[in-house]
Amino acid sequence: MRNAFIKKLSLLAEKDPRIFLITGDLGFGVLEEFARCSPRQYLNVGVAEQNMTGIATGLALEGRIVYTYSIGNFPTLRCLEQLRNDACYHGANVNVVSIGGGFSYGALGFSHHATEDLSILRSLPGMTVMAPCDTWEVEEATSALSQKSGVGYLRLDKSSAPLKPKEGEVFHIGKSRCVREGNDLTFVVAGGILEEVLKASELLKAEGIEARILSMHTIKPLDTEALFEAVRTSEGIVTVEEHTIEGGLGGAVAESCLEAGVVPRFFYRFGLRQGFSSLIGSQAYMRRLYGLDAEAIAKRVKELVSERDAQKIHRLERFPNAQENF
Hints:
By secondary structure, the protein is of the alpha/beta class.
């Protein structure tokens, strides 16, 4: 995803001198080409994320469109006060880019596990929060953020779903993308973990369960129109994110549905339920460890569908003349 991001940003910078990239001493091997081609639009501030955010805000308030770039929690949680007080409060055109979403850097330990960022940044007023699922969405999100005002968060990850855009497909901030049709349930997914959901959907298909998949690349603002339609036309909603279940994608979906009175027949959130992880390993290993791999997702969804079917049968046995409208 990071290669797709920097490739797109380089093209944007060539055409728009307002584009400015600031890195916190990260990206060697990736950012050199940008620095070489657009030296007056690039700054390495060193390991100083709080200063990086303050500088970014100052540049943005002087008319620049700024992207800050680092890994994991460093461009988000380490400088949270500056994001809140400097960038968000002033509505500055600062786009925060983290290239270590979820367990992307799982082998580097707890400090590099970015599993609370979505919920924390979603709470900041004026913050657009995005977690693309594939490289096309990364490129489109990078471009879209340059055209909007205010603060944005672009959460990238080492993994990426193997998808290609449909002919004529158009990307919009706040509008989800249906990548698979199905009516037995709807997966609502954010981030590269979509690759696991695609595999899980094939496993479910072999069991006769057809799953719709929505790539909810924008978590704030959430595409409630597509979400509510999915609630009305499928048997249940299942959210999947490489993140704590509290306050992230699953939280946003639950809040929106309950507040609008649009309640799924069944609802389940895949994500971290145990809080912090003190264990380390590759992204694939960490997903398996916490039940976020394709096999674990498919297994739990089969159980949910079976439970739902059992409830239907029980209700019909009790009320044989009732319509099956539940």
